[in-house]
């Protein structure tokens, strides 16, 4: 069964702009799906709507069987979201950043789990550092650690490598591969076809608010 079911999702912004024009998509547990599309295609709008941050004009989203609007808390607790912008508290330590994030979801304290997450992301040695002392690449890792802190089953990464150099991009690809091995379902957006090719099992091509095709990676490459 699909962990995430998106049905005829539409979004018109207050100014009348139609950013999503009826997106339907099922995502299976454990897969990595890349949403590939140019700037302005509607990728962020899609992620924000699926995660319940913005309200769709029509259509539905269910996560693990929970409707994102009707059962927001249950659905949202299954989702980890890594936003495009680095929105971290500069004076907070890495450890507290991740611990508070778990607390926000009402999850009981589990230091062993947080240690495991930080170790996997090579952040354990930085746990006592303040966010402001970290490099851009490390801050992006903290965003991922935060998003994983409440043990989501689906992780969204919004343009995880936008504006980062080649080395950091490869770094991020490795992190995604390791996360897949841990069983979490991953949906990421990108405008780099080589990124979709490198890390995804399936690729959805989005343009002008519409999902043009969704293909297993091998089939997509044959079509392009
Ligand atoms: P919603 O329909 O979800 O309530 P709004 O249409 O009210 O969202 O937009 C939220 C804010 O984003 C508004 O202040 C709006 O002016 C601003 N905004 C308008 N156009 C854009 C754009 N092209 N990209 C990003 N933000 C925009
Ligand atoms: P992407 O993430 O693929 O770059 P977005 O979802 O951010 O695309 O934006 C899709 C389209 O919707 C763009 O044309 C953008 O300008 C527009 N848009 C985004 N937010 C708003 C808003 N709040 N109000 C009006 N238009 C918006």
Brief summary of the model shown:
GO terms for molecular function: ATP binding; ATP hydrolysis activity. This protein is an alpha/beta fold and 224 residues long. The chain is 34% helix and 28% strand.
Rg, rounded, reads 17 Å
Task: Give the distinct bound molecules.
Answer: adenosine-5'-diphosphate
Order of helices and strands: EEEHEEHEHHHEHEHEEH
Which regions are unreliable across 5 or more consecutive residues at pLDDT < 50? none
Describe what you observe in this structure.
- The structure is a single chain.
- This protein is of the alpha/beta class and 224 residues long.
- Helices cover 34% and strands 28% of the residues.
- Strands 6-7-8-3-9-10 form a 6-stranded mixed β-sheet, with helices on both faces.
- The two termini are 30 Å apart.
- Bound molecules: adenosine-5'-diphosphate (2 copies).
- Residues 13, 15, 17, 19, 37, 39-45 line the site of one adenosine-5'-diphosphate.
- It comes from Parasedimentitalea marina.
- Keywords: ATP-binding, Nucleotide-binding, Transport.
- This is ABC transporter ATP-binding protein.
- Residues 4-224 form the ABC transporter domain.
Element layout with pairings:
Elements: E1 2-12, E2 18-28, E3 32-36, H1 43-50, E4 58-63, E5 66-67, H2 72-76, E6 79-82, H3 94-104, H4 111-120, H5 136-148, E7 154-157, H6 166-181, E8 185-190, H7 193-199, E9 202-207, E10 210-216, H8 217-223
Parallel strand pairs: 3-8, 3-9, 6-7, 7-8
Antiparallel strand pairs: 1-2, 1-4, 4-5, 9-10
Helix pairs in contact: 3-5
